[in-house]
Design a protein that fits this description.
The structure is a homodimer.
Chain A: H1 29-49, H2 55-65, H3 72-79, H4 83-95, E1 99-103, E2 111-115, H5 117-138, H6 143-156
Antiparallel strand pairs in A: 1-2
Helix pairs in contact in A: 1-5, 2-4, 2-5, 3-4
Chain B binds a DNA duplex (30 and 30 nucleotides) through α4 and β2.
DNA sequence: TCCACTTTATTGAGATTGTCAATAGTTACT
DNA sequence: AGTAACTATTGACAATCTCAATAAAGTGGA
């Protein structure tokens, strides 16, 4: 029998809070989701920071680059952010000439957000860095597992009909 | 022929930003993880709020109830929060008599956080509510899928040796 | 057409959260 | 004994969230 705080020789040097993994919260999907996301987010933020971006601005830039020509309201709804936060995000990207506001031809109240050539260029290099850093984290899963995870997360994230399309 | 903004009877009434799901970001595991987490978090916060808690305080309470007797430093490390945030969290729970700070017998610098009887009671009822609301979200997955997801998230979340134990 | 109502982007206030440095008391090392 | 490292705490400051208010533009009747 071992003392609860002791462990065998093969034990990975319990860094102090490891023992809290015995708690009931770690059997909570929402908790694990939050924790996995926190790690992934920290990693992605560090990667994006090497290009002067955060995941937020990186994501907006990615959508702008996609030529979907979203309005700010659509961005707010899709990213689940307050419209006023989109204003700040687009302001910053526009001040760096990575993105441009264009009038929506079908609604003069709305702006449409499009990437500049410079925006496309910095997105390309930022994407390389970010995708690389994510590979590191998701390397804990096999290729098939990643596919399965993506399919599950799409459903949890409320993606429209993941089956069709 | 339908107007692009119109749709068939079976179509889920595209709420405006649905078309952004055609973007490349939705093929990004980190993005989907963040979005799924945002939804789950909002739901859990609403559920916990009916008991005067947030997910943060709910989680700390859950760990306190587990009789693991964590120090504040262990809580900070495990929850990836700054130690000063743990102070605020424990202050609040302690002011509501749900939790108590006890001196760590093995280190007089450290406090150990334990639940009071009242803390156990409110945790029990809060847990019922929160677990219920989570069931609603994760109902998008089958039981086996949830097991698979949990195993994957544990690895991504950095759980120690998910295989043994 | 005129009028009330809604919607889009924007600004700004106030609360919440994240991050960091400094400190008092304690422990660990030599 | 003395130096260095660690724990909890406080306080400052930045970043983020959440809301309300507003101007400009669309919507849908009477």
């Amino acid at each position: 029998m071992l003392n609860p705080t002791e462990s065998l020789a093969t034990a990975p040097m319990l860094s102090g809070s490891e023992r809290l993994w015995a708690t009931s919260v770690v059997r909570d999907l929402a908790f694990l989701l939050a924790r996995a996301n926190a790690l992934s987010l920290a990693q992605a933020n560090a990667a994006a920071a090497t290009h002067g971006l955060k995941v937020r601005s990186y994501t907006v830039l990615a959508i702008a680059v996609s030529d979907t020509r979203p309005t700010q309201r659509e961005l707010a709804e899709f990213l689940r952010l307050d419209p006023s936060q989109i204003v700040a995000l687009v302001d910053e990207l526009e001040s760096r000439a990575l993105v441009r506001r264009e009038p929506d031809p079908s609604d003069r109240r709305a702006n449409v957000v499009v990437a500049t050539d410079e925006g496309r260029a910095t997105y390309a290099s930022a994407h390389a860095t970010v995708a690389d850093s994510e590979r590191a984290i998701f390397a804990a899963l096999s290729a098939e597992e990643r596919t399965t995870l993506m399919e599950m997360l799409r459903r949890l994230a409320g993606a429209p009909d993941a089956l069709s399309a």
